[in-house]
TrEMBL record:
Domain of life: Bacteria
Descriptive protein name: DUF721 domain-containing protein
InterPro entries noted in UniProt: DciA-like (IPR007922)
Pfam families: DciA
């Protein structure tokens, strides 16, 4: 099992004086690097650090927002845009309140396309809201 970073640093602090006393100050530091863990990609470290920082709903919203034109092609994508995701409900913001009635029959198509793009368990309901009526804050 891999050691945690904290344990690795603790081990380095313990071993460094031993290596320096055995090999000398300069050579001891170099020898310690040979006994350290291998390189780790910066992307892996950032992913590990940021994994728990972002809320699942926010991550889903970002995915839908960035891929919206792929998921819903054509003029429909321009009529309704993702505004917020919360607990499996996607709020789509429409440009005009009349579009709420016009787009309601298309919600099953939207759900099917979203399920194909991001997974079937992520979004279970879509609600249409007129532009500006949904606060961006929780």
């Amino acid at each position: 099992m891999a050691e945690s970073r904290k344990e690795q640093f603790r081990q380095r602090r313990t071993l460094l004086p031993l290596f320096r006393s055995w090999y000398g100050r300069e050579r001891g530091t170099l020898e310690l690097s040979a006994h350290s863990a291998g390189p780790v990609s910066a992307a892996e470290v950032m992913k590990e650090l940021c994994e728990n920082l972002i809320d699942r709903d926010v991550a889903l919203y970002i995915t839908l927002e960035t891929r919206w034109k792929e998921i819903i092609p054509g003029k429909l994508a321009a009529c309704a845009r993702p505004a917020r995701c919360r607990e499996g409900v996607l709020f789509l913001e429409v440009r005009h309140s009349a579009l709420v009635r016009e787009l309601t029959p298309s919600l099953d198509l939207f759900l099917a396309r979203i399920a194909a793009a991001v997974g079937s368990d992520e979004i279970r309901e879509i609600r249409l809201v007129p532009a500006g009526s949904l606060s961006r804050r929780k």
